[in-house]
Amino acid sequence: xxxxxxxxxxxxxxxxxxxxxxxxxxxxxxxxxxxxxxxxxxxxxxxxxxxxxxxxxxxxxxxxxxxxxxxxxxxxxxxxxxxxxxxxxxxxxxxxxxxxxxxxxxxxxxxxxxxxxxxxxxxxxxxxxxxxxxxxxxxxxxxxxxxxxxxxxxxxxxxxxxxxxxxxxxxxxxxxxxxxxxxxxxxxxxxxxxxxxxxxxxxxxxxxxxxxxxxxxxxxxxxxxxxxxxxxxxxxxxxxxxxxxxxxxxxxxxxxxxxxxxxxxxxxxxxxxxxxxxxxxxxxxxxxxxxxxxxxxxxxxxxxxxxxxxxxxxxxxxxxxxxxxxxxxxxxxxxxxxxxxxxxxxxxxxxxxxxxxxxxxxxxxxxxxxxxxxxxxxxxxxxxxxxxxxxxxxxxxxxxxx
Length: 402
Known about the structure:
Layout: H1 2-15, H2 25-36, H3 54-87, H4 94-100, H5 110-143, H6 150-160, H7 168-182, H8 196-207, H9 229-234, H10 249-254, H11 266-278, H12 284-304, H13 316-319, H14 325-332, H15 343-363, H16 371-400
């Protein structure tokens, strides 16, 4: 590595200001930072805390996401292999079928499930990273900024929130919209007012709803329907919400159910939450407040009841293991840029997200999921919460000191 580091140092002279390739410095710096470290430290908001650098922050988040990535691979393949085995199919069509013919489509095989899932997850992730990197390079060259590892997290979060059947061109369109209109137009890293990954997903959801909703998008087998738990809740008879559900609470907690590739496992999200909290990377107040707000709102609807809307009958503990609530609570709501920064502001911000997530999920049967919109709306209110908290502190100090 010392030999490679010496080569990079010598090459770096040509990419420095005034060098022959100075225009391409952001690209050189991205490679150098990836291999040896980053010179960019947390000197400005919202990361002012200690000498930790951005690379370490983003690396920790990536490590926390690994359990969700594993579930994205395994469960995507498990759901597809289960259907293939139950229906007596030979396997997937095209190039995926040729690859799976080597190991078979056995839902009891860890290798088969992970490989089958990877054939859907990896193309989505690769398209996300390639297209996103092009946009990052373009704006960094224009502004003369260095590459940031933040995009590695944004790209992975975005890919984990998608169904396995989404067309790749829509993935490219979605990540382009999120990076350009939710991040780069506001100045780039540290200046986006909302989560770019969620903005990307929201754009795809409303622009191409047929590929993001319904029963046929969650199982990677053509022509096969696999309703999510929330989808089954939405069509249940009022008063019998849990009776028609084909999944147990434990299955939902572990994540062996249809859904967005990386969002199904609450257990995987809890492991990620533990890593983020123990390392001090993510604010625990946001997670706790979002959880409390969701439980309070879910409890109100559950005990209030409804003779028309079956979603009122979802017990509060079920809300935590279905849909994307756990994933959004841990990885999306805690975004260090778009979340609230003051302690009191974080409590208000999290409570708002938790209440809105359940309110949208329950009160609107046509849209049985609300964490995405709740977090985006919370991002909009986060600066307002911080502003009023800071102003209140200023007034209190002025009164105390006369």
